[in-house]
Amino acid sequence: MNSRDSSPLTFPVPFGRLLALGPLVGITSGTLSYILQGWLVPSMPSTPQGQYVWVVLFNILSWTVWLASLPIAWRVADRVPIRDGRRALPLAFHVCASLVFAFLQSALNAVFKFAVLSVAGQETLLGRPLAFGPLLTWALLFTFEWQFLLYWGLVAAHHALRAQRELRRREVSEARLEARLVESQLESLQRQLNPHFFFNALNTLTGLVHRDPHGAESMLVRLGDLLRAVFRSQVQQEVPLSRELTLLEQYLDIQRVRFAGHLRSAFDIDDEARGILVPVLLLQPLAENAIKHGFGGLAVGGTVSVTARRFGDQLELRVADDGRGRADDRRPISEGIGLGNTRQRLEHLYPGAHMMSAGPAGEGGFQVTIRLPWRRDVSEPLDDALDIPA
Fold it and tell me: Nearest 5°: phi and psi at 52?
């Protein structure tokens, strides 16, 4: 990707506005010049060159042409930029261009002075007959250097604005690339969850086919409902907590078939938390971990509890089980697909604005606590968002 922006950089002030400024600036400058001349040389206003109308006319012509020439110098700076790696030739070009610019401006200044004084009836100047040559010499002596510096000021301003535009464009481009990368990573993590959950459900279903055909049939129907809801939610990264809880209930209904009714669930959800946005399929892998590691091999099953409440400007979610857990286990917790995937998704979705902890619960079992930004869902509700029974 080319990091340089070769598109033209337009002069900041419209050309028409510059022409309109010429008379205004000329009148102001001419008035100040007339006052200053009358103060320093009291006899000046009595001569044609010192009369107010001719002083103002000269300034109007000079300032209007000078302002009109600025976009030309700007365009030259735009066509021949000074960049890293190729500075010598552009610098040499602009040195020549600045000399030409300063000479032309000084020459035009002398032309206007000569024309105005001629029209005003001035026959002599400083004791000599009025002639263009001395006026040109005077203009070169008193205006050439600042016209030269003006050109380089325009070149510097042009390159500063171009560098700022390139920096802004690069920042926008990098932000878009980063957003696409994060979105791609999130989609990859979400796609990773679906087959993981699906194959686990199929393994459970396989174990029930011969042992409990009726239970397997019931589980298959519920699994179909849940998968349809999951795939319909794949277009979103976040859903309201109420919708996520519905998905979790469907998943727990499937697991209850597996545990023949010995799996229990307990929900403690604040009403105001139900409309807060959470990552889709956030709770299901945490509940699966609780079932698998908490009481997956216990005949008596256990309870999966889910709580949601406001914690300052965050939503606090907690998924816990009352199984064997790790209450007496001091080994480091090894994160599988469920916990690892959840942690990565949270880091991508809420960088620096979330918290996730996992460890033994106070009275045995295991719990995962997550805190997310408190952001309410403001989208229009879908008529058939999940397409599953209430």
Answer: -55, -45
Q: Please give the distance of CA 176 from its chain centroid, rounded to a whole number.
A: 7
What integer pLDDT is reported at residue 190 of this predicted model? Answer: 54
What letter does residue 382 receive in the DSSP assignment? P
- 319-351: pLDDT as tens digits: 998 876 544 444 445 566 678 778 888 888 888
Would strands 238-240 and 277-279 be described as parallel, antiparallel, or unpaired? antiparallel
DSSP 48-109: GGGSHHHHHHHHHHHHHHHHHHHHHHHHHHHHS--BTTB-HHHHHHHHHHHHHHHHHHHHHH
Tell me the backbone φ, ψ of residue 225, rounded to 5 degrees: -60, -45
Report the candidate in 108, 83, 94 with the shortest Cα–Cα distance to residue 151. 94
How many Å apart are CA 248 and CA 333, to the nearest integer?
24
State the residue for tokens 């690892």.
340
Q: Please measure the distance between the N-terminal and C-terminal CA atoms of the chain and give it in whole angstroms.
A: 51
Residue appearing with tokens 């719990």: 367
Contacts of 23 (CB under 8 A, 6+ apart): 60, 64
Both tokens of 92, joined, read 């040499």
- Length of the chain, in residues: 390
Q: 348 — phi, psi (to 5°)?
A: -75, -40
Domains of the chain: 15-176 (no CATH), 212-373 (3.30.565.10)
How buried is residue 303: exposed, middle or buried, by Cβ count under 10 Å (0-12/13-18/19+)? middle
Report whether 194 contacts 230 (CB < 8 A).
yes
Sites in the chain below the pLDDT cut of 50 = 1-3, 326-332, 382-390
Per-residue pLDDT tens over the stretch 210-234: 777 777 777 777 777 777 766 665 5
CA separation, residue 290 to residues 77, 141, 169, 315, 359 (Å): 68, 89, 48, 21, 11
Q: How far is CA 341 from CA 246, 281, 316, 338, in A?
A: 21, 11, 19, 5
CB 304 within 8 A of CB 290: yes
DSSP 259-326: TTT-EEEEEEE-GGGTTBEEETTSHHHHHHHIIIIIHTT-TT-EEEEEEEEEETTEEEEEEEE-SSTT
